[in-house]
Amino acid sequence: MGRPMQVSRYWRHFKEKYRLIGGKCKSCGHVHFPKRPVCPECGSQEIEEFQFSGKGKVISWTIVRNPPSGYEYYKPYPIALVELEEGPVVLAQLTDVEPEEIDFGMEVEMVTRKVREFEEDGIILYGYKFRPPIK
Amino acid sequence: MRKPVIIGVGLTPVGEHWKLALRDLAVEALLNAMEDAGVDKVDSLYVGNMASGSFVEQENLGALIADWAGLGNVPAVKVEAACASGGAAVQEGVKAVMSGLEDVVAVVGVEKMTDAWPSDATRYLAYAADAEWELFHGVSFVALNALVMRLYMKEYGYTEEDLALFAVNAHANGAKNPYAMFKKPITVETVMKSPYVADPLKLFDASPIADGAAAVIITTEEKAKEFVDKARMVEVAGMGRAIDTINLSHRKEFLFLRAAKVAAERAYKMAGIEVKDIDFFEIHDAFTVMAALSLESIGVTERGKGAMLAKEGQIAIDGDYPIQTLGGLKARGHPVGATGVYQTVEAVWQLRGEAPNQVPDAEIGLTQNIGGTGSNITVTILRRV
Questions:
Q1: Do A62 and B147 touch (CB under 8 A)?
Q2: Residue B237 contacts by C-beta under 8 Å, 6 or more apart in sequence?
Q3: Which residues contact A27 (CB under 8 A, 6 or more apart)?
Q4: Is residue A1 over pLDDT 60?
Q5: Spatial distance between the Cα atoms of A72 and B36, rounded to a whole number of angstroms
Q6: What is the pTM of this model?
Q7: Mutation for A interface: B250, B252, B253, B375, most A CBs within 10 A
Q8: Contact yes or no for A64 and B136 at CB 8 A
Q9: B162-216 per-position pLDDT tens digit
Q10: pLDDT by residue (tens digit) across A16-36?
């Protein structure tokens, strides 16, 4: 398996993947995730950081039964399109939920979880997943 | 502007070519096309390929294939647009001819996928998605299309059986194509009994991992007369391509292929035709739901009605909108970077009246080739000269 320089590749996304910080356009107010250099709505390059609440709802989902290599550990695992409270949609794994419990509009909240680990001397990647809220 | 015409086609069967390397497949298709066109040298070579670096650890395909095919010191490059690489390579070849810079151009699309482990192949295909924000989360390409399929069924009230009809049609047509990977007709039950790969998407909703190469020779109408009779010339009458967000989750609409609409409109305008003038459609049915969305996005039918065309039998050879006349990606097979060139070859067969599954009196055909989850799309209009 190819091993690109994984450490720097992932630490540069800590803000987004650990804390769900995205971008907000200073010109038109559009919020997006992840943060981009150019606003996808108005083209402005004046973008500031924006902290998302982590709350959202499921708009579509699937169960990955034949994962790409490197992701076999959790298989089968659910992946969903989650519409965040503030508007943008993100793709992420669902966790702490049985496949048959997942439904359109299901409320979820962001949690930090292990996403992937490389061989025994490799790094472990963490990131956001979503789960039904703990009440 | 010079009128570009295709004067020769060549291909290998699509399949698991354990004994053949990427270069063997490409050279065979290319030499077949040159022989078909009656040319013994070309001015340049464009290679459509998606992921040779990952699948077989080989880049620099322009040099590799031109060298091994004995083309001499021609300019040669690889064109990459994910699964739309073949369609994009054909269009780059056409542009070279139209510009006047090159007179006789070869285009070959090639992919060698079966040298990789299946789970690695799954990962390489996902490189067409957004690596940092989609693949990072363990999504496969099938899973991305499954997310769309679930939404399509919910939005318009279709069932898994409804979408299976696209696979049934493709296999019925592929059964007539000697170059297809699957030559057996199937039923809706076959699709429904196949295992889920990413729910609700089943194995038979998806095109197979495969090896193959296809090639075309493009020149001007004037120059073409030196090589072939008029009956063997097919004009590239129009073409367009466009991108959409690479990341599915960033799309404003999940059930409309905006890039296909833009690409198709450009192609129709250049060809001076409307969608109703088209006799058959070689669309990108890598997944059954993508066939439905493609028909809607290129203007064959309105939103939500794509799957209805399948239910009404209108996508069959004798229907109003024949699609996948030689099996499509689903049954002919989908060697990703080669697919757009296979589509072109098949459209040329139809327009020359040489197809094993002939659309009667076909004069105009359309090929639509999708890269990514609708993120990079080519549409090309071919017309009998």
A1: yes
A2: B270, B271, B272, B273, B364, B381, B382, B383
A3: A39, A42, A44, A46
A4: no
A5: 47
A6: 0.97
A7: B250
A8: no
A9: 999 999 999 999 999 999 999 999 999 999 999 999 999 999 999 999 999 999 9
A10: 999 999 999 999 999 999 999
